[in-house]
Amino acid sequence: MSPVVIDVIRETEAWPSQTELDSLMDKAVDAALAVAGWTPPQGVLEPVELSIVLTDDATIAHLNRDWRGKDKPTNVLSYPQPPGPLLGDIVFAFETIEREAEEQQKAFLDHFAHLLVHGCLHLVGHDHQIDSEAEEMETLEKEALARLGIADPYRQVDAAFPVLGS
Asked: Which compartments is it annotated to reside in (predicted)?
C-alpha cells in the first residue's frame, strides 16, 4: 500500500480522464518519494494525504501572482505543509502543460508525470534556487521518471523552454 492517499480536485474538464490519470499519479508520487528517501514523519500514521488540483491557466496565474508575485500562469505550484498527516498541495495548469509538452515534443502524460515528480520533491524539501540544488533535484527527477519508464526530460530541453515552476 502506498504511504500516500491522493485527493484529486478537477477544476476543468480539459484534463484527461480520471481513469487515465489515477494509476500514473499513484506511481509518480510513489517514485518521487522513494528516490527522495521520504518516510512519514515520526508519530504520523500512514497514509498521509496529498492534494492534487487539476486546473487551468487563469486559476494558476491568480495563485502564482498571490503566492509568488508573478502575474502569469505557470505549469505547477507546490504548497508543502508542516510535517504531519498532510503532505501538501500541488496545483497544475492544463494549458501550460499541454503547450510545453507540444513545444518539447513530449507526450502530455509524460510531461505531467515529470511535473508531478517535481512538485512532490518540493513538498519534501527539495528546491532548485541554486545550481547545486537544481542538479540534485534534476537527478532525483530523472531517477523517479526512469522507474516509470519515462525518458530523461532534460535530454531534449532547450534554453527557449520555460524552467519548471517559473
From this structure: Cytoplasm
